[in-house]
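Reopening this ticket.

The earlier resolution said the output was attached, but the attachment link was broken on my side. Pasting everything inline this time so it's all in one place.
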Amino acid sequence: MLAALPGLAQVALATDIQVIDAKARASLTPTATTAAIYVSVKNTGSTDDRLLSLSTPIAASAMIHETTLVNDIMKMRMIEGGLVIPAGATLEMGTGGTHVMLMGLTAPLKQGDTVVLDLVFAKAGKIEVNALVGGAAE
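Inline output:
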């Protein structure tokens, strides 16, 4: 029901992990083969958890990436071994930082679409969320 209400942030719950406000940007071109999804992951528990892997039916692969500025050059790299979500903390993914990188899109993302994304955590297990696709500049 939340996916039908665009003004509300989507929340997926599993044990102590909450995946909040999953969103993506529309592709800039009709031939786009990559895209990024941004989510916030909140750990309300008393122990750390680890985001191990991601998948979606709309891309050949989904991985955790981070963007850093090194010597005035933006660099992007895959985060190996997963991403720790500390107990009591919230990881907020966003442009210019940590994000879910989709590669090998089956079709470009269009504003108003919904992308199904599965996140697999070491303790919380698999959580499925729907990422709403906004405008290309949102």
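Reporter confirms the inline version is readable. Residues 58 and 106 are 5 Å apart (CA to CA). The first strand starts at residue 11 and ends at 14.
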